[in-house]
Amino acid sequence: MLYSFFINACMRYNTEYGNEGESITCFGYAGVMKNITRLVLLFVVIGLTGCAAHFPVNPPLSEAEPKTPYYLHKQRGFDRSPELLVVLAFSGGGMRASALSYGVLKTLAETPINWRGKPRKLVDEVDLISSVSGGSFTAAYYGLKGYRLFDDYESQFLKHDVEKVLLMRLFNPMRWFKLGSPYYDRSEMAEEYYDEILFHGAMFSDLAGRPGPAILINATDLTLGTGFGFHQEQFDWMCSSVSDFSLSRAVTASSAVPGLFSAVTIFNYGGQCDDRSPQWMRSEDLKNAPELKPLARKVSSYLDGKERPYIHLVDGGLADNLGLRAVMEQVTMHGGANQMLDDFDLGNTRKILVIVANAAAAPNTDINKKKNPPTAFFSIDAATTVQINLYNDVTINHFRGNVRRWKDETSLGRCGKTRCKNGVDFYFVNASLADLKNKDERKFLQELPTTFSLQSDEVDRLVKAADVLLKNSAEFQRFLSDVSHN
Mind giving me the DSSP string for 189-237? Predict the structure, then answer.
């Protein structure tokens, strides 16, 4: 799945620019490009690097705190019921994931609820969106623009041929000098384009204090293989500020598939400010809670900037292709479900709804109809898809187990061992393409390529699929019924 983008892009470039009849292949073309790159690098060595721009550098924390620090627990928005908590998780999967997550938001915007006698749209009760890869485009744009998402996101992004424009820029000789620089690579090129069409220079400080939900964009730490979240808690460990970090760069990191895009580098100043480690790492809690030790090791790796002065980030789907592990980590980091609810000013929460927009692809079974062994690229593509699907299943099962534990934990915290009338009801909805009842539609949508180019009707079918999945979900309907009777 991850490598299909390159093959599709190469063949598409040959077709659109008249090479379909030539003997040059993707491998041959790669060889030509390699020689051209060497020539460009030669020019760079003799002094042309002065024209190349340096990639943006995240600033260190000064003695004064950022004016608008992007702490997730302080970004819950306003005019939301403190008794409802709605969390969305947007998966990876290229434009397929972007469209499906958009469809989920669109359905929630068309779903009326009446909670405690107050009519509103369900989307207005969303408190947190955790996203990876393709889902991060939708999450970031909604966090920045709110309802404007439903006016122009389709034309600006979903039905826009992003892949074609990136290819044209990649093969534009005017950009080869910059691309030959160690400070400007494919990800910087993509970041510029995403900023042009979607974010227009917006920083995380532009998300702070807005009426919408908190947005948690996730990438993968290339060294650790663990998730990296763009929020001030994470940047505190590195003595840095996320406030002046651009949304386009965070989304680029979240979707930077290794090999297709370069890693996105951020600076780590850990140890150059006052102690920013979480409180639980400085208490006896760590000794008595072995489940905190993996998180403690992860946090500790960022506290030492001398050992790790640079952090390299790639596609968030490698660590967490559903965006759910980041949610579980937030609960752990805040000291459990009860403490997290208190930190988010949700101590009176009665109902928690979690929806996953799951755009995972289906494995291609065409190889089973041929006796000859599949090509190397086909094998890598199939193996990657299988592994991601298996990892998704593990994540979902792990999350369900945590839900049961959180329910018991909140009941015990509020009512002790007596029967609890003030407990929390949990609702977990896995809006997965794999659960579409229409076999032909399911097969068609799950086999859409993991690229950033879809036909207009394909986008429409994904948006409709999100609506069908939610309306056919017994758990989602149970939530709506329970809310309507309160």
Answer: HHHHHHIIIIITT-BGGGTTT-SS-EEEEEEEETTT-SEEE-SHHHHHH
Task: List Cβ neighbours of 402 (8 Å cut-off, separation of 6 or more).
Answer: 328, 331
Which of 329, 307, 198, 319 minimizes the C-alpha distance to 256? 319
**What rounded mean pLDDT belongs to the chain?**
83
H or E element in which residue 121 lies: strand 118-121
Q: CA 406: distance to chain centroid?
A: 24
E strands within 323-424? Answer: 351-358
- Nearest to residue 166, comparing CAs of 87, 217, 95, 240? 95
Tens digits of per-residue pLDDT, 320-329? 999 999 999 9
Mean pLDDT of all residues in 230-255: 95
pLDDT in tens, 411-457: 887 777 666 667 789 999 999 999 999 999 999 999 998 889 999 99
Residue 387, Cα to own-chain centre: how many angstroms?
18
- Given a cut of 50, is residue 385 above it in pLDDT? yes
**In contact, 157 and 149? CB cutoff 8 Å:** no
pTM, two decimal places:
0.85
d(CA 400, CA 309): 37
* 3-class SS of residue 353: strand
What string of H, E and C letters represents the secondary structure of 5-22?
HHHHHHHHHHHHCCCCCC
Strand pairing partners for 40?
Answer: none
